Amino acid sequence: MGDELLGPARGNQRGHFEDMDVYSFHTEWLAKLGFNEAGFLDTALPPLPPAARTVAEGWLARRSSTGRVWGWKEPRTTLFLEFWRELAPGAKFLFVFRKPWEVADSLYRRGDALFQQQPEFALRVWARYNQAVLDFVARWPDDCMLMEIDRLATDPVGALGPFQRRFALPQVKPANCYDRELLQRLDSPEPEALVRVRFPAVFSLYADLCRQAGEPPPSEDGRDWEAIAARAATPESDAFVTWATHQSRQAPRGSLSSRLAYRCRRLLWKLRRSASPKRTVTSPRSNSKS
Asked: What is the pLDDT of residues 46-72, one digit of tens each?
């Protein structure tokens, strides 16, 4: 999954475990295209220029030269799916999705000004990513699997087994490294109700993901969802504003030392990459697992 992984930062105290080469490629090209590096957008990216392809081909060639099964985890990959598919046509894709209201809640707890000013934008971002996933799976069904995060968290061995068998991967038992305290779930029905009532297209998209993954779609279960959503609003504030404002107060600020350590790691990685000798680029093998 990479020799140098992105470590702890705001919003993930244990580390993001994202390959620094892929992470930096995505963030740099998002910035060059005029988008924010975090990948918070609700529109499709324009085609990348030839210079981006040259960089990506060189990195794929180096990673593939080991002859081992390899891959990466990096959420922004969703914005570049066709780009990577073209460069690594043999790649296999495991998409892990999560309830839209839980993703929105997680984004609010980050404390970003963007979601404090436009709280509903979090759901548009979720929709952009997950619609891209469904579209990609429809085009390349033989190379993709979808999985709901709750299934992966509660039974990683049972969840990953079909993926390993389908794509002839080594039958490796996942390490017991899941920390239940870091994957927060919402006990209150109001967030789900707000999505059902205010963003029915987003809720419908989530149901489509469940069906595609072989999971039962969410049911109505007899609740008055409009009444539940109405409870979330106050006379002074919109329900989404109230939700985002409240959760932003829980944002992990992190110590000064941890923030400096994170920035130093990124700087050192960039210095090492710029100082490393240039390598000959060859055609990448198609044995990556994204």
From this structure: 999 999 999 999 989 988 888 888 888
Closest CA to 191 of 98, 75, 95: 98
Query: Burial, 209: exposed, middle or buried (Cβ in 10 Å; 0-12, 13-18, 19+)?
Result: buried
CB 42 within 8 A of CB 131: no
Cα separations in angstroms, 30 against 37, 58, 286: 6, 19, 25
Angle at 57 between CA 55 and CA 62, to 5 degrees: 100
Give domain status of residue 60, yes or no.
no
Q: How far apart are CA 50 and CA 166, in angstroms?
A: 34
Domains held by the chain: number: 1
Backbone angles phi, psi at 132, to 5 degrees: -60, -40
**How far, CA to CA in Å, does 269 sit from each of 258, 264, 274?**
17, 8, 9
Q: Which residues of the chain have pLDDT under 70?
A: 1-18, 174-183, 236, 251-290
- The rounded distance, in Å, linking the Cα atoms of 205 and 218 is 11
Q: Is residue 71 part of a domain?
A: no
Q: pLDDT per residue over 153-169, tens digit each?
A: 888 888 888 988 999 88
* Residue 48 forms part of a structural domain: no
* Rounded CA separation 243/105 (Å): 8
What pLDDT sits at residue 275? Answer: 58
